[in-house]
Amino acid sequence: MENENIKLQSFEAGERQSDMRLDKLLAEVYPDESRSFFQKLIKSGDVIVNGKDSVKPSQIILAGDLIEVRIPAAKSVEIVPENIPLDILYEDDDVLVVDKPKNMVVHPAPGHYTGTLVNAILYHCRDSLSGINGEIRPGIVHRIDKDTTGALIVCKNDHAHRVIAEQIKAHSVTRVYNGIVQGMLKEEEGTINGPIGRDPNNRLRMAVNEKNGKPAVTHYKVLSQNNGYSFCEFRLETGRTHQIRVHMASQGHPLLGDPLYGPKNQPVKHLEGQCLHARTIGFIHPTSGEYLEIEAPLPSYFLELLNRFDICYNTISQF
């Protein structure tokens, strides 16, 4: 009988994953897990390649290799408050808006029970967090990827959580992102309307999927471009998993540094993930009823890249 505490996932390595170390490949396919987490799974025999579990983290994977991973379900663990500095953009009795840094997971998961945003906000807010999403995700009403930076709402009570969640469900929350994409876009602005669902060729990726995808709409505007890169602004109508990353890759302009949807050989090394920043979050305040819009400044790594490519960023346009 299958162990209910183990989630078995399988996928076939694609062309862009050929000649990649097994542990590195898994960390890219599952961006919320660390490379060391998968090294432990490999050593414990929970990763199977082409039917064999006697594999090593350094094994080189080829296109077409079948990889099976047994991932333990999230354990019931005590989430410990940690004194991790938070960049607070706004705070009152109902909500907290933080500027999430790069390489920080939003909520605990296998391999990431410490150092998450939840650990940090538990320390900062003490007992003042919503409990609707359970003990492992207190206050979390939405999330952004580990390597995406920027503005994130945290709810400090259940009333605020319900009100903000309804706005997110109705797609009425303003969400504006900045990103650096590869290539020079021909059109200065446009709309990508492509349903997003699981990639039929790799169940661990998302893709524009006309058959089984959910509606997804991304508006984009080129702010500046030079030297083969474009600095863009994105406004979301919907909030599908990896939406901007998938939509831009589908146009042949993946986000710079994207390990999952970009090319195997990235033109700029050591970026620690995609160059994507949640710059603006806007919502109706759950108590006052007034519209509140919060800005998160571009992070230093982002500015350094714009300077490196000689891309102007002094003026950020609005749609």
Write out key terms for the chains shown.
alpha+beta; nine-stranded mixed sheet; 319 residues; three-stranded antiparallel sheet
Q: What can you tell me about this protein's structure?
A:
- The chain is α+β, with helices and mostly antiparallel strands.
- It is built from 6 helices and 16 strands.
- The chain has helices spanning 22-29, 35-43, 117-125, 158-169, 243-250, 300-308, and strands spanning 6-12, 20-21, 47-49, 60-61, 66-72, 88-91, 95-100, 149-155, 174-182, 189-193, 196-199, 202-208, 217-226, 229-236, 276-284, 291-295.
- Strands 6, 7, 8, 9, 10, 13, 14, 15 and 16 form a 9-stranded mixed sheet that branches. A 3-stranded antiparallel sheet has the order 1-5-3.
- Strand 13 and strand 14 (229-236) form a beta hairpin.
- It is globular.
- The model has no long low-confidence stretch (mean pLDDT 89).
Mean pLDDT: 89
Helix content: 10-25%
Low-confidence stretches: none
Give the end-to-end Cα distance, rounded to a whole number of Å.
Answer: 55 Å
> What's the number of helices?
6
How many beta-strand elements?
Answer: 16
What oligomeric state is this? single chain
Radius of gyration: 20 Å
Overall outline: globular
Element order: H for helix, E for strand = EEHHEEEEEHEHEEEEEEHEEH
Q: Please state roughly what percent of the residues sit in beta strands, choosing from under 5%, 5-15%, 15-25%, 25-35%, 35-45% or over 45%.
A: 25-35%
Largest sheet: 9 strands, mixed
Structural class of the secondary elements? alpha+beta
